[in-house]
Amino acid sequence: MNMETSQLMAAARHFTLQLSSTRRGARLARLLAVEQLRSWDLEAVTEPVAQIVAELANNAVTHGHVSGRDFRLRVIVTGAAVRIEVTDTQGDHMPLIEDPEEVGETGRGMLIVEALALRWGAERGPAPQKTVWAELALPVANPVRAAGARGALSRGAGAGVAAPRGAASRSGTT
């Protein structure tokens, strides 16, 4: 852990859960993330966070499921942002933005994440895992004040490859 990452974690509020890789686990991830945000007085972001957690957890359960393996949800609030991370055990299956014209009734989850998030991305590792993350800005009226932590979410804790809004749909990968 580098110095910047340890400063980020000391200044941040963070919430981590390991959940079963089932539909029930995905539902619990959404419900518990919302309750945690409420306990931090961050109700203004509960709806978009709930939707992003639902999409990322559903992807972990649907596309990242390995029998007997769980997925991990992590919510970090620091500076003026909230970061949602979902880690599963299928590092070889990276998320894609699919053309809505070419998919049926499913396959639009990452389009929703892209529409709600300030930025999102995915990282491989440690093997066999991958972490898909999304960041949202906190309302100016209620940011978490932490000296030196503003903007650290993007720089610390293995920020990996970022997908600025619109970039993933152009390249097809993150």
TrEMBL record:
Transmembrane segments: none
Top-level taxon in the UniProt lineage: Bacteria
Entry keyword annotation includes Signal: no
UniProt xrefs under InterPro entries: Anti-sigma-factor_SerPK, HATPase_C_sf, HATPase_dom
Region (Disordered): 153-174
Keywords: ATP-binding, Kinase, Nucleotide-binding, Serine/threonine-protein kinase, Transferase
GO molecular function, one term: ATP binding
The keyword ATP-binding is annotated on this UniProt entry: yes
Domain Histidine kinase/HSP90-like ATPase: 25-120
Protein name as annotated: ATP-binding protein
Organism: Streptomyces termitum
Species classification: Bacteria, Bacillati, Actinomycetota, Actinomycetes, Kitasatosporales
